[in-house]
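Internal QA ticket QA-208
Title: Verify multi-chain structure generation after dependency bump
Assignee: T.L.

Test input:
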Amino acid sequence: MKNWFNETDIDAAVASIKRVVDVPSVLDEGATGIGFPFGKSVVAALDETLAIAKELGFTTYRDPEGYYGYAEIGTGSEVFGIIGHLDVVPSGDEKQWDHAPFDMQVIDGVMIGRGTQDDKGPTIATMYVVKAMLDAGVKFKGRVRFIYGTDEENLWRCMERYTAKEEGIDMGFVPDAEFPLTYAEKGLLDFDLLGPGLSEIMLSVGGAYNAVPDGAQVTLSTEQTTKLAQVLDDLDYPYTLDGTTITVQGKSAHAKDALDGINAVTRLGHGLLALYPELNIFKFLTAVDQAIEAKTTILGEISDPESGKLTLNLAKVEITPEQTRIAMNIRIPVTVAKDAVVSQLQEFIAPFALQYSEIDYLAPLYIDRNSAMVQTMIDVYREISGDTEAEPMVSGGATFARTIKNSVAFGAMFPDTPDYMHQPNERWAIKDMTKMMEIYAEVLNRLFVEK
Ligand SMILES: [Zn+2]
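Actual output:
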């Protein structure tokens, strides 16, 4: 296999990654305006990246409203797309960082700074892959286009604009997950179930749609506390007791693996049914809890051979005198219709007098795993990484690959790369970057170079 890079190329990639990592491109909803819909730092990271692209010889385009940009090289109608994102999550508690999160350092061959793994590092480094290939004299079959999103960590408003206004791609990948390759991502549905307000009890337990709640606290009268404790003992559900406050203990898990966790909210709801046997909310929570205990869901078994089982997470319950709200997340197998799932759900909730209210839906990703594109990517990954057993994967997670047709999530982290995404001291080893670049170069060489 051809060796496309020398040390100078690698050093240049690292220097450019630093230029973009040093821009603290965290969504700032409080400081948005025309031309900078996610805040001025986010647009600054986009501009810095487009400047680098221009220096490398790409033609660039920046959405005048500041939602996205792209850089392109080559001619012809066919487009190979590489889709990354330039926004990052906040640094979190800076005391937990050994160095300033937005002043990238290279220490012992490792880049350290927010965005080195997710996703500035892989996005910028891949531009140097294309540059090195052109320097080596290759002619691409068409245009190679880098698409830069700027709202991946939040609401994906960038790609919504991009797909509405710009052309699609014929093949490509998103370097924002793990190797080997993800060809299927389940449909992702966040929704609320709404019911009437209640005067009997106030409750606010649980959290984000994508996490199994690991604790649920309620404060009751002395008499009720004793009764609830008894019921939880009978159910064999662990809890702690502090005066008249009971905290049911669960175990957190990502919603895509909901059955790996223990849902403290449904357990508490199940216990509270004994105190409020007439209240629909606790009848419903008990039904959900019983399904979880039986390792299934209230919708029964829904699955397909392509992507496995539907998962369901009950994330949060709020009861006020005005309203009852239950927040939930469902991950739908790629060949199952969302509408069929929603109507089955509506049938299930009707007896509990709950109303369905959709919050967010992301359509699934599904690319034929036997396609030439997927097979070539997997072959190259196996040859270069030495991981000969690797197979294309299915995921309950979400990448930009589902926003743009004909793309898959491909890298950029290796199975043995320590996962620092969204964490303090985010870092990426230059040797992993180099291996990633070799893989991407060979994929482009086999799929998109004139022979
Ligand atoms: Zn990312």
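Spot checks passed. The two ends are 15 Å apart (CA to CA).
Status: verified.
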